[in-house]
Design goal:
Helices cover 46% and strands 17% of the residues. It has helices at residues 2-23, 40-56, 71-79, 92-101, 109-112, 137-146, 161-173, 185-194, 204-212, 260-273, 277-285, 295-316; strands at 29-33, 60-64, 86-91, 113-121, 124-128, 152-155, 178-181, 199-203, 217-220, 249-255, 289-290.
């Protein structure tokens, strides 16, 4: 009798899981953003939340939880039930570089999160002060080798993409420069313009207006193709560094153990949303490119990125307490 009861309960549970996925969402869904309102990830999330709300005829509410390099927002997701009613939209640095540079990470991306979809790519631009005696990556590297540690570069903070990414390039090119951390890309750009910094990888939305005003000198873009706004600026691959791919992205995640049916519904919805013309135009206006991937593709990308950044962080001795 006990065996029959257990089998009945197991059968009921098996029926309940697909039913829950089929009926999801029956109430508002929260999307956690581990950054303050108004930033690029927040803007993407609000666009996506609005579209998901229309598609599923349910509210998708943005919940900003900034702090601790994004860890506070991730921990809020981890603490929530894995029923699909709490999701996370995070930038690549927060789910890959964080794992590599923190002495004691507050979470494990591969263990604690369910990758759902890659959403957008951002772009960085390698910029120099216009007075610098080089205009190409080749000449920049030659100058840096001839003047070790005389050039300084800025980043959005210790462990930021443009910090650890520049450390990677230093290793690849065999050069030495001095790192100066800031709180965001805007002050980095301002100090490259003033000549306080020699070079830096700067977010495209910050750099492009300054480039067009002649205040910054673009050397290359570390992305897969040239930027439409700067068609004459080569990629790092074209400049002689084909393995150097430094393109930040944002992805949609759920908690570990998210129902596969809910994961599939969200993945299919994001594929449709990211192909809509008004979405691509809106993203272009924000300096972003749609970049849909399947859950498996995003999981693979995260794993490979964490391995890369762990190697770079170890070689460059980058550690964040």
């Amino acid at each position: 009798m006990l065996r029959r009861a257990a089998l009945a309960l197991g059968f009921a549970g098996a029926l309940a899981r697909p039913a829950a996925a089929a009926e999801w969402p029956e109430r508002p869904v929260k999307i956690v953003v581990p950054y303050a309102p108004g930033g690029p990830v927040d803007l993407v999330t609000r666009l996506v939340a609005d579209k998901l709300g229309t598609k599923f005829n349910q509210s998708f509410v943005v919940d900003n939880k900034p702090g601790a390099n994004g860890a506070i927002g991730v921990q809020a997701l981890i603490a929530a039930p894995n029923d699909g009613y709490t999701l996370l939209l995070h930038a690549s640095a927060g789910v890959t570089i964080y794992q590599a540079v923190m002495r004691t990470p507050a979470f494990d991306t591969l263990r604690d999160l369910t990758p759902i979809a890659l959403l957008v790519y951002f772009d960085l631009i390698l910029c120099a002060n216009p007075s610098m005696p080089f205009s190409t990556v080749k000449d920049f590297v030659a100058y840096a080798k001839a003047n070790p540690n005389k050039l300084s570069f800025g980043s959005a903070g210790v462990g930021a993409m443009n910090h650890v990414g520049t450390e990677w390039f230093k290793i690849m090119a065999g050069i030495d420069m001095v790192h100066v951390p800031y709180r965001g890309d805007a002050p980095v750009a301002a100090d490259v313009v003033s000549g306080t910094l020699g070079v830096s990888f700067i977010a495209s939305n910050v750099a492009i207006p300054l480039i067009k005003a002649g205040k910054l000198k673009p050397l290359a873009v570390p992305s897969r193709k040239r930027l439409a706004a700067l068609p004459d600026v080569p990629t790092m691959a074209e400049a002689g560094y084909p393995e150097f791919d430094l393109q930040p992205w944002t992805g949609l995640f759920g908690p570990a153990g998210l129902d596969k049916g809910i994961e599939a519904k969200l993945s299919a919805a994001m594929k449709e949303i990211l192909s809509e013309r008004d979405v691509t135009e809106r993203l272009a206006g924000l300096g972003m490119t749609p970049a849909f991937s399947t859950p498996a593709e995003l999981a693979d990308k995260v794993a490979r990125s964490i391995a890369l950044w762990k190697d770079v962080a170890a070689k460059a001795k980058v550690v964040v307490e």
